[in-house]
Specification:
By secondary structure, the protein is α+β, with helices and mostly antiparallel strands. The chain is built from three helices and ten strands; from the N terminus they run E-E-H-E-E-E-E-H-E-H-E-E-E. The chain has one domain: Cytidine Deaminase, domain 2, CATH 3.40.140.10. Strands 1-2-4-3-7-8-9-10 form an eight-stranded mixed sheet. Strands 5-6 form a two-stranded antiparallel ribbon. The longest helix has 14 residues. Bound molecules: zinc ion (ZN). Zinc ion (ZN) binds next to loops. This is Mov34/MPN/PAD-1 family protein.
Length: 168
C-alpha cells in the first residue's frame, strides 16, 4: 500500500495508523445517496522526535448534520469523544485535526473547508499551532498540514493515499 508517513515542511513526520485510514475509507461516498461524513483526528506527539501520530478518529455522531455535499460536526459530541480518549490515555493524546468525505474521486477542498480550517488554526486549540486536515474521496484521500508561522496561517498539501492500494 502507499505510504502512511508524510513529511512536514519542518522535517517532522506524520504517521497515520492503518486502522484510521481504513475507518475513514469505510465512509467514502460510493453511492449517489451516500452523505458526507467526518470527525476529529486524535493522536500523539512523540517525545523523542516531536513527530505526529494519528491513531484515533471519531465518526459521525447523532447530532451531526450530514448532507450530500456538506458535513457539520456537532462540537459537543466530538468533544465528549475526545474527553473519553483523553481519560483512557491518561492525558497523553492531542486533538490533531479533522477529516471529512467528499463525493468526488480526488477530493479538492471547498472555500468553506479552507475557511473552517483557518478558523480552527486561529482558535489555537490546546495552544497547538499544528493541525492536519484530511478529505476522503472515493479513490483517494488527501492530507493537508496547517500551521501558524510568524502569525500567518500556512496550509500545505502533504500527500495522498490511494484506496486501491490498501490491503484488506
Ligand atoms: Zn469539504
Amino acid at each position: 500500500m502507499s505510504k502512511t508517513i508524510f513529511y512536514l515542511p519542518n522535517d517532522k513526520k506524520l504517521k497515520i495508523s492503518f486502522e484510521v485510514i481504513e475507518l475513514m475509507f469505510s465512509y467514502a461516498q460510493d453511492s449517489f445517496a451516500a452523505l458526507e461524513s467526518g470527525g476529529i483526528l486524535i493522536g500523539r506527539i512523540l517525545e523523542s522526535t516531536s513527530d505526529y501520530v494519528i491513531d484515533v478518529a471519531s465518526t459521525p455522531m447523532l447530532k451531526d448534520i450530514q448532507a450530500r455535499s456538506s458535513f457539520k460536526r456537532d462540537a459537543e459530541d466530538h468533544q465528549e469523544f475526545f474527553d473519553k480518549h483523553w481519560v483512557l490515555q491518561e492525558g497523553r493524546c492531542f486533538y490533531l485535526g479533522e477529516w471529512h468525505t467528499h463525493p468526488e474521486k480526488v477530493p479538492r477542498p471547498s472555500q468553506i473547508d479552507v475557511r473552517g480550517w483557518k478558523e480552527l488554526l486561529n482558535a489555537e486549540i490546546q495552544d497547538q499551532m499544528t493541525l492536519f486536515f484530511i478529505i476522503v474521496g472515493t479513490q483517494q484521500l488527501i492530507v493537508w498540514h496547517g500551521c501558524i508561522v510568524n502569525c500567518r496561517i500556512r496550509i500545505t498539501r502533504l500527500g495522498h493515499i490511494r484506496r486501491n492500494e490498501i490491503i484488506y
